[in-house]
Design a protein that fits this description.
Elements lengths: L3 H6 L8 H10 L3 H13 L3 H12 L2 E2 H8 L3 H13 L3 E6 L2 E6 L2 H17 L6
Antiparallel strand pairs: 1-3, 2-3
Length: about 130
């Protein structure tokens, strides 16, 4: 039996739709921006970072609290927070000796929430 997905993905036409290509080309961001976007999405490929973002979606937290929540060392959490800070997904503020982390802005929360909703939908409409 033939692979159905291969049949669907293959185009049997050699017609190039120049108008569509020209319009889409005008709307495409520069390559550098798309590369930066790809790098941003790579950050989401680590499950620990995703768990941290999920926690910070609920509340600002210090490293010790995140480590306790996830059952990990503070060193491991600090390493992942550094990656998240470098990509401007999280920000920090110091209160005395304690450093609290939060999502950098509402865009980060929206990206996370949309991704989570999409995955829940793919998994049979589970709740968030």
């Amino acid at each position: 039996m033939a692979d159905c997905t291969a049949e669907i993905d293959r185009c049997d036409s050699n017609v190039i739709h120049e108008e569509v290509i020209a319009e889409v080309r005008k709307q495409m961001p520069e390559d550098e921006i798309l590369l930066n976007l790809a790098d941003l999405f790579k950050v989401f490929s680590d499950s620990t970072r995703v768990k941290i973002l999920c926690a910070l979606q609920q509340s600002s937290m210090c490293v010790c609290d995140i480590a306790a929540l996830l059952g990990m060392t503070t060193s491991a959490i600090s390493h992942q927070l550094r990656v998240l800070r470098q990509t401007r997904l999280v920000r920090h503020r110091r209160e005395g000796k304690v450093v609290y982390y939060a999502l950098d802005d509402e865009h980060v929360g929206n990206v996370f929430a949309q991704g989570l909703a999409h995955v829940c939908e793919m998994n049979g409409g589970g709740t968030l």
